[in-house]
Amino acid sequence: MVNLGLISGNKGTKSVGLSFRIPYNTQWGQSLVVCGSESVLGSWNVKRGLALSPQHQGDELIWRGSTAVPAGFECEYSYYVVDDDRNVLRWEAGKKRKLVLPDGLRNGEVVELHDLWQTSSDGLPCTSAFRNVIFRKSWSTEIQRPLGVIQTKLDENDSVVVQFRICCPNIEEETSIYVIGSSMKLGQWKVQDGLKLYYAGDSIWQADCVVQKDDFPIKYPWLIEMPWRGAGVAVPMFSVRSEADLGVGEFLDLKILVDWAVESGFHLVQLLPINDTSVHGMWWDSYPYSSLSVFALHPLYLRVQALSERIPEEIKEEIQRAKELLDGKDVDYEATMATKLSIAKKIFVLEKDTILNSDSFNNFFTENEFSFEVEQHFYLSLSQCVLGQGWLKPYAAFCFLRDFFETSDHSQWGRFTCYSIDKLEKLVSKDSVQYDVICFHYYIQFHLHLQLAEAAEYARKKGVVLKGDLPIGVDRNSVDTWVDPNLFRMNTSTGAPPDYFDKNGQNWGFPTYNWEEMSKDNYAWWRARLTQMAKYFTAYRIDHILGFFRIWELPEHAMTGLVGKFRPSIPLSQEELEREGIWDFNRLSRPYIRHGFLQEKFGAYWTVIASNFMNEYEQQRYEFKEDCNTEKKIASKLKSCSESFFFLDNEDKIRRNLFDLLQASRNIVLIRDPEDASKFYPRFNIEDTSSFKDLDDHSKNVLKRLYYDYYFHRQESLWHQNALKTLPALLNSSDMLACGEDLGLIPSCVHPVMQELGLIGLRIQRMPSEPGLDFGIPSHYSYMTSTYLLLQLTLILEIIAAMLHTELSNVAYWVCAPSCHDCSTLRAWWEEDEERRCQFYKTVVGSDSLPPSRCVPEIAYFILRQHVEAPSMWAIFPLQDLLAVKEEYTTRPAAEETINDPTNPKHYWRFRVHVTLEALVKDKELKSTIKDLIRGSGRSYPPTGEIEVQAGREKGVATAAPTKQQVTAGLEKISLLNESPKTEAVAVL
């Protein structure tokens, strides 16, 4: 990625010139800055970095800049896109570039750095999922030459020093890497005379060579490998069943799940969110995407038996009784939570002094005392540099106040409604009467951390990626909204427009984010979330990644997802609408309830209903009064004045009809912006509303055209820019492998941005993203066009770099799956829709006969094989779909295996696998069937032995990279060099 050209300059100066050059296409008002660790590059203050100037070179926009540095200069640096005020809009992904100038440079010589913008895909091989897990070495490689150090010196004029560098985390023991090419210094295509690369640490290999200018352009082949492909299993933590658990899956159960995964050929275990959701104190809290805290772990997953080695017999007996009582078909959320917390409190009383004074607890407490550290390389104002309190103290205080006031609604907490550090410190003070209660919450989180960390390390040693889930929202009554309310738009609600799941859309109830406020500290809250996740996970799924482009924002009072608008988006202005002949804004933006609707619902008594519940804002047009414009208000009013309606039908029928009418009150064409009355948003599916159908033809045609423009055209550039502001903050916060859940109404800008950022997408066969298809075709799913996942070539020569950039710019990464937690399982889907089942059997299976009414194991096997053989990087299967390949695991009604019903906002998340993990580990037939599927597909599968580290050198079974099928330009595969003094494998570039 760096071209170091040393060109003779003026002899009289006492410094060395440093010249930067990078091709990058910006938009109007944007420019590039190079910022680094030394003062000459701004000391990581982007506002003081080195500004680059643009210059067109053919179709490329080249940014250049120069500065003088002392001989022997070394630094780290990165490139940033900024606006006219030097505010950071975007920055490079991946690790910081490192530069170490060689000794012996003459005064006035110039070092030219020819770089390419680093995308997230450049760093995929070095994410923790691959570097620390899948390609975790069974042998130790010592650093031979430090990263960035230039070993070679110029000994003649008209020459340049070129440094070659590659990232290759899966190099096997006693393997060497060579670069061969047209230059004599690259062996003139002879491997034995090629340039050998040396290990520089962190999976990077590099070497320098002096090349004559006359040799340019230099040609050399680059390695193409068959892309790495792996398989995984997905299961919610609460769904796991083991012989040791207390009514629900527990973090320590992951160790057994990992054993089963390894023996079945899986490289990955995927979970749903595991953060604390204890908002309501009832089964509603089973919803894992409505977190009480984005940092705290859920007490539900605690193993109480592991809290102490000295649990008294009477408590052990209580645990055993609880095990038998809670061992049901489904999770009993309320009973399980109450039982675990009750037992944990008894153990806490016995050992609190020992634990709270231990070094391990104090380390845990200190580590989580501050929410984040100010990163040196971002410019922050003085007020933004003040460190806030960490998550642990506010979380414990919140839990105490929630229980004390018997509500999580912090607006009901009196003087504690508004959070402050002073109030917090008094609450958690050692002198406070509630200190033991506060410490109990510390204690629970400490043990949850220990148990999850133990399971996570076990997975890493076994070569299994543990994949977490990053929810898009937080509960509006959460620790996060209490501590940082300015980060949220509390008068709004998050959801999704109508789609495959629900024709009325979805209302998730979360407040939307105040992205403008979040950007002021470079999204520190998000970065802290990812830093916390990276303690346990090496990969994660970004829930509803579309929300980082734009979110479907609803009024707080909305019940469905119909009456929403995208945020951000470019609205329709009143001026724009008037130019088109649209002027009756009251008619279009207020509820369209006519007296005929009232007569239809309430017959002769419609006038009574209208006078009590409605306002007639225009002749024969009504809307609900302020005191009854929500379901809650209607129910309350009916109850308080039920005597007035004694002559009507029963109260339940009136309530239902009023609720139906309330839904109809959303029957509008344009949504007026509550913050700017001159801006409007077209209601989703406006053609389905009676308000639209009653319009004249001209108005219909204009509004249809503006509707299409709003939803499918005018926002694309805005959403593209928005995603490139927000998503890099997440991706650069950790080295986890990131995947994005990109289901639903997908704007055209989404996939190009995901490709640019190296994000893995999701493909569900029965929900194809390709137009005109009833079912996705797994064999057509995209993966990538080169070996970029396994072998990242860090290009040095400008001309070669530009060539590879063109070759690899349209890379796409996918996860394919037959189902997910938000839809029915494979068995349930097969059995619930006869028409779709027959269609699938004919078009996908290729049979004209009638399909079996049950999803027999042969059908499940066929569909799993389709997915495991797909080109997608990952094939991840819900555990229920895997169990469907064996008859004895299909006795439970298929509908009971569904995890979530997205159409029901109060769905009870309680599914438990009916077979224990221990039984699955013992089931050799099932493991053999699944492993044969994976082995036959060419996907990688992990070794069955644990990698151990002893005396600084890892020993054991090496992580298994797939068999490499290497193709080089004009060369056959070279595996061994007979001329070598010892047997040595050779990888050729």
TrEMBL record:
InterPro entries xref list: Carb-bd-like_fold, CBM20, CBM20_DPE2_1, GH, Glyco_hydro_77, Ig-like_fold
Location of the CBM20 domain: 10-119, 154-262
Stated family: Belongs to the disproportionating enzyme family.
PANTHER family named in the record: 4-ALPHA-GLUCANOTRANSFERASE, PTHR32518
Biological process annotations from GO: carbohydrate metabolic process
GO cellular component terms, semicolon-separated: cytoplasm
Keyword 4Fe-4S: no
Record keywords, A-Z: Carbohydrate metabolism, Cytoplasm, Glycosyltransferase, Transferase
Name of this protein: 4-alpha-glucanotransferase
